Amino acid sequence: MALPDKLLEDALLRKAIYTGVILIIGACVISQVLMQFGGGIRDEPMDLSSHLPADSLGQAEDAVIFENGLPPFISSGGLFYPEKAVFDIGLALGGLLTILLSADLFLRTKSGLKASGGSLWRQGANVGQLVTGIIIGGSLVMLTRNPFNVALVAHIFYAMNIFYGSFIWGAFIAISRAGLDSELKSVGGYPLSTVRWGLVLAGFASFQAMMILLAYNFIYESAFFEWALTFAGEAQVLTIIPILSSVVADEEE
Q: Does residue 23 contact residue 141 with C-beta atoms inside 8 Å?
């Protein structure tokens, strides 16, 4: 049984992309604002060191003791209501749309590579894009089910899947579609492949800075780079739009 060339029509996929980005970014920002102004238990000291495995206490204990209340990490918006409702709905639905997007992009790229005689290297990267997208989407859903004040280790596991996955997913897209999108430009006229690799590097650099700063207990600075990583990842999603724009333009002509 042959696989279809795509799951959604171009106009519908475009709406799904915008909806997914708005859901994820919107949920992160709105839940963060509600958390910051919520007061009460959010501003009280929180010690989560008892959630860590005994053999990791010496290394990570300081990073999970918040003497001044919840830090501005994105996940802090997923602990208490009402912001938790916004966080859970936005990230869960956004995660499901991420899986759908990855599957549709896989089929489109597979079809394009087959028609153009794409190398095994690019075909393998396309499979990597699909697998990574599914992991990211599933982890976004599971993150809402495991807030870090209840299940710290599980939360860190799913968060790391998302962090690593965001720039690895972008790299797989850049590799698999380099030939197919070689003539496409992004906003500002920059080559689409160049923008994709720039976002991959921005995400990787943000992740490294986040982890290094967290290791030295620079909580607020670390949170800044977590937000930078998130925006880089969502910007990577938007680099799929020019693919659809070119298709629509061809059909209109």
A: no
Q: Decide if 123 is inside a domain.
A: yes
Report DSSP letters for 128-173, one per residue.
HHHHHHHHHHHHHHHHHHS-TTT-HHHHHHHHHHHHHHHHHHHHHH
Query: The pTM is what?
Result: 0.92
| DSSP summary character for residue 46 | E
| Residue 57, domain member (yes or no) | no
Domain that includes residue 103, residue range: 10-51+66-252
177 sits in which H/E element: none
Domain presence at residue 246: yes
Q: Other C-beta atoms within 10 Å of 107: how many?
A: 18
Please report, as a single letter, which amino acid is at residue 53: P
Would residue 4 count as lying in a domain? Answer: no
184 contacts 242 by C-beta, under 8 angstroms: yes
- Give the number of residues written for the chain: 253
CA distance to 27, 77, 86, per residue, from 35 (Å) = 12, 6, 11
The number of distinct structural domains making up the chain is: 1
Instruction: Encode pLDDT of 181-215 as tens digits.
Output: 988 888 778 899 999 999 999 999 999 999 999 98
